TrEMBL record:
The lineage of its organism: Eukaryota, Fungi, Dikarya, Basidiomycota, Agaricomycotina. The chain crosses the membrane at residues 44-64. Keywords: Membrane, Transmembrane, Transmembrane helix. Residues 25-35 have a biased composition (Basic and acidic residues). It comes from the Eukaryota. Residues 1-40 are annotated as: Disordered. InterPro entries: Ubiquitin3-bd_protein_But2_C. Residues 104-208 form the Ubiquitin 3 binding protein But2 C-terminal domain. This is Ubiquitin 3 binding protein But2 C-terminal domain-containing protein. It holds the Pfam family But2.
Length: 271
């Protein structure tokens, strides 16, 4: 039911492999799911036809969505955050928002303590280490959804590899810190370690694990998203959300690219 804004992940949910739906969406156990379930009593050929139709629809939607946003989401454009206020990431205001969404950040900026004056452009390369922190920013519009949280979205190894997405890590990546920080007046360009936004408060920690492992390893229960420490109120009015992502005694590196399946730090709408 959630979508990867501006992609309509809602519809991709209906793919034969529903793992993406699992990752994207806590409340994915919709009745439609079971109708496409090959294990149902429906004859195998009928299930197959349904799956083929679902894949075709999903691909068509994906292409439409990619075409309409390709100007904003490729890596080259990410390197020009000035032209990239981010509002368009959440869709036009007249667009009806019926399902909760997953939002890709409008800026992804590295700062490096070891090179305190170094300015990095916003880009896809995410690196966390003892000397590297990442700053993420989202421009949220009004929404009927009143609760949001920030989390890692990690595909299973197999799903990631199928899309050429992987990450390297060492140390504990189950307690990655998400800090609320000051909003940089001049935007997300020209940030260095020295000029980085200042921490206001630790919103919480998140585990960098596929959702299934998160639930298993952290002993989470149904509806755990609503308990998340990184949850905050949103939707009443447009807002700029800026966070620092950091970790202690650990290292994590990957490319955060706007495509399915997400491998990302993203903002989720709920409730
Ligand atoms: C796979 O991903 C790596 C790193 O993200 C990239 O350098 C490479 O070009 C990609 N390969 C393909 C076939 O897309
Ligand atoms: C971040 O801190 C500011 C200032 O205290 C506060 O207004 C804002 O609501 C906080 N944002 C989040 C997402 O916690
Ligand atoms: C970037 O920041 C540095 C140091 O804070 C400053 O000297 C420089 O003028 C800034 N450049 C731009 C283009 O704002």
């Amino acid at each position: 039911m959630a979508s990867y804004s501006p992609l309509q992940m809602h519809d991709l949910d209906h793919q034969p492999e529903d793992t993406e739906g699992d990752i994207l969406l806590p409340d994915k156990h919709t009745p439609e799911h079971s109708t496409a379930d090959p294990s149902s009593k429906r004859p195998a050929w009928a299930a197959l036809v349904l799956q083929v139709i679902a894949v075709i629809c999903a691909c068509a939607l994906y292409n439409v969505a990619s075409a309409s946003v390709s100007g904003q989401h490729n890596v080259q454009k990410l390197r020009q955050p000035n032209q990239f206020p981010g509002i368009e990431l959440v869709g036009s205001p007249q667009q009806k928002q019926r399902a909760p969404k997953l939002y890709f950040p409008s800026a992804i900026v590295r700062v490096n303590k070891a090179l305190p004056d170094q300015v990095y452009n916003s880009g896809s390369h995410v690196i966390l280490s003892d000397s590297d922190s990442m700053f993420f920013q989202w421009h949220l519009g009004q929404s009927k959804f009143t609760s949001c949280y920030i989390d890692s979205i990690v595909p299973t190894v197999e799903d990631g590899l199928a899309a050429n997405k992987s990450y390297t890590s060492s140390g504990s990546i189950t307690e990655i810190q998400i800090w609320n920080v000051t909003t940089p007046v001049e935007g997300m360009t020209n940030l260095s370690w020295k000029t980085r936004p200042q921490r206001i408060a630790l919103m919480g920690t998140v585990a960098f694990l596929p959702e299934k492992d998160k639930i298993e390893q952290l002993g989470l229960e149904d509806g755990w998203q609503s308990q998340l420490a990184t949850r905050f109120s949103c939707g009443k009015e447009a807002a700029v959300i800026t966070v620092e992502v950091a970790c202690n005694s650990c290292r994590l590196e990957f490319e955060q690219i706007f495509s399915v399946p997400p491998l990302a730090f993203d903002l989720m709408e709920i409730g």
